[in-house]
Design a protein that fits this description.
Blueprint: E1 2-10, H1 15-26, E2 32-37, E3 43-51, H2 54-65, E4 70-75, E5 81-92, H3 95-107, E6 111-115, E7 119-126, H4 128-139, E8 143-148, E9 152-155
Antiparallel strand pairs: 1-3, 1-4, 2-3, 5-7, 5-8, 5-9, 6-7
Length: 160
């Protein structure tokens, strides 16, 4: 099961190394990792995506809490959180394929960043599943280069 963990940490040198080192020592695999400052410059959020059973996720959380710089851990799975990734993609383009490519870009609500006679550079922000579908759709045109971020996530505000 894919689980998104949002780990609030002190923003200090070596924290990411300690967190990733824990995963290495314990033999846990990280599917995706993203790090960034919060609204408070003294804190950062590490967003981890892991594919582990629930019992193993609980063990990972316990081990993370043992690290001195870890302040809070939230599990952001299912429909309780907004999850996003960014992908930048350059695909082959020709006069024959240009119209089809531009139509597909619109269908996916992506954005053309740059264009030449033989290539189109595209950016898209969406949930991880939609990004994967986007990449499958464009692979038939010939992907020249691609960069994809890890997942970032925030819980939806509590209703009520």
């Amino acid at each position: 099961m894919r689980t998104v963990l949002s780990v609030l940490v002190r923003n200090s040198a070596g924290v990411l190394s300690h967190v990733s080192g824990l995963f290495t020592r314990r033999g846990y695999n990280i599917d995706s990792l993203s790090v960034g400052e919060t609204e408070d410059a003294t804190k950062s959020i590490i967003t981890l995506v892991v594919s582990e059973e629930e019992e193993m996720v609980r063990q990972i959380e316990k081990q993370l809490y043992k690290l001195v710089d870890v302040l809070e851990i939230r599990e952001l799975t299912g429909e309780d959180a907004l999850k996003r990734e960014l992908v930048l993609l350059t695909v082959k383009s020709s006069r024959e394929t240009r119209h089809e490519l531009l139509t597909l870009i619109n269908v996916f609500k992506a954005r053309v960043v740059d264009m030449s006679e033989s290539e189109i550079m595209i950016e898209m922000v969406a949930n991880p599943r939609r990004i994967s579908g986007f990449l499958r759709a464009f692979s038939e045109f010939g992907i020249i280069e691609m960069a994809r971020t890890g997942t970032i996530a925030l819980p939806f505000p509590a209703s009520g």
